[in-house]
Design a protein that fits this description.
With about 250 residues, the protein is of the alpha+beta class. It has a single domain, classed as ApbE-like domains (T-fold). The chain is built from 6 helices and 13 strands. Strand 11 and strand 12 form a beta hairpin. The chain is globular, with a radius of gyration of 17 Å. The two termini are about 30 Å apart.
C-alpha cells in the first residue's frame, strides 16, 4: 500500500521500514489497536499478552488526557506528576530532558512499556512502533535507516548490541511519515537505554535541522541530552554521527 502525504515532499511507502530490522530467527506478529500498530519479534507468539499490555497502557494515556487535556497538545515540558501511571511519568521525564512536550515520546513510551512487559515471557523482544524501536536481543541486530529521498537512505546500517540492556532506537523525520516535526531532516536516529527518551530526543533534534549545515548544531544538542548514547543525522547527501555507534555505510 502506498500513501502520498500532502504535507511532505516525498512519496512514503507506509510501514516499508519494518523490513529494515534483522531478526528472521524470531517469531513475528502484529498487534493493532486504534492508532497503535506494533510489529513484534519474540522467541514465541505473545499476541494475547502484547494486546493486553497495549490496551492497558493506551487506556492509561487516554484516561490521563481526559483528566488533563493540556497533556496531549503541549509542545513544552509539563510538570512532574508522582501520582500518574508509570508510562505517563516516563513521557513527562523524556519531555523534560529534551525540552519538548510529553506526547513527543508517546510511540517510544508505548514500545518500551509493552516491551518491558513481554520480557517477562521472552528473552528477546523487538518492537517497532511507527519507526521507533524497543530492542532486547541475545544477538547483535542490524537496523538500516530509511531517510526518504536522501541518497544515503538505506545505506547507513547500525549494529545494535542490546545483549546487556534493552535499547531504544528511534527515528524522526521532517520529510518522511506523518509525525509532527518543525525541521526538514531526512532522518534523525537516536539511541538510548530509554525508548521514550530516544523518541523525544529524535523529535527535539529533528526540529533543529532545516538544512544540512544544521547537522553540527543538531549533534551538539544531542550531546547535551542526558542518557542519549548516540545520534545519527541525515539531511540530503550529508550525514553526521556522534556517540557510541557501531555502523557501516553500504555502497
Amino acid at each position: 500500500m502506498r500513501k502520498i502525504l500532502k504535507n511532505k515532499n516525498i512519496e512514503y511507502k507506509e510501514r516499508n521500514y519494518r523490513n529494515l530490522i534483522t531478526g528472521g530467527d524470531l517469531c513475528k506478529f502484529k498487534v493493532c489497536l486504534d492508532e497503535s500498530d506494533l510489529f513484534i519479534k519474540a522467541n514465541r507468539n505473545l499476541y494475547k499478552l502484547a494486546r493486553g499490555a497495549l490496551l492497558r497502557f493506551r487506556s492509561e494515556i487516554k484516561n490521563y488526557i481526559d483528566k488533563y487535556p493540556f497533556f496531549k497538545n503541549s509542545l513544552k515540558p509539563v510538570k512532574e506528576d508522582e501520582t500518574a501511571p508509570e508510562i505517563i511519568r516516563l513521557m513527562i521525564k523524556a519531555g523534560e530532558l529534551c525540552h519538548v512536550g510529553p506526547m513527543a515520546a508517546v510511540a517510544g513510551a508505548i514500545a518500551e512499556s509493552v516491551g518491558s512487559e513481554l520480557l517477562k515471557y521472552s528473552s528477546e523482544i523487538i518492537i517497532e512502533n511507527g519507526g521507533d524501536i524497543f530492542m532486547k536481543s541475545n544477538n547483535i541486530r542490524k537496523v538500516s535507516i530509511f531517510a526518504g529521498n536522501s541518497p544515503l537512505s538505506l545505506r547507513v546500517v547500525l549494529n545494535i548490541d542490546s545483549r546487556n540492556h534493552a535499547l531504544g532506537i528511534c527515528t524522526s523525520s521532517g520529510t518522511v511519515g506523518p509525525s509532527l516535526s518543525f525541521g526538514k531532516a531526512d532522518a534523525v536516529t537516536v539511541i538510548s537505554q530509554s525508548t521514550a527518551l530516544a523518541d523525544a530526543a529524535a523529535t527535539a533534534i529533528g526540529n533543529i535541522i532545516k538544512k544540512k549545515e544544521d547537522i553540527d548544531s543538531g549533534l551538539k544538542y544531542a550531546q547535551n541530552i542526558s542518557k542519549v548514547l548516540g545520534a545519527v543525522i541525515i539531511k540530503d547527501d550529508k550525514i553526521g554521527l556522534w556517540g557510541d555507534i557501531n555502523f557501516a555505510v553500504n555502497k
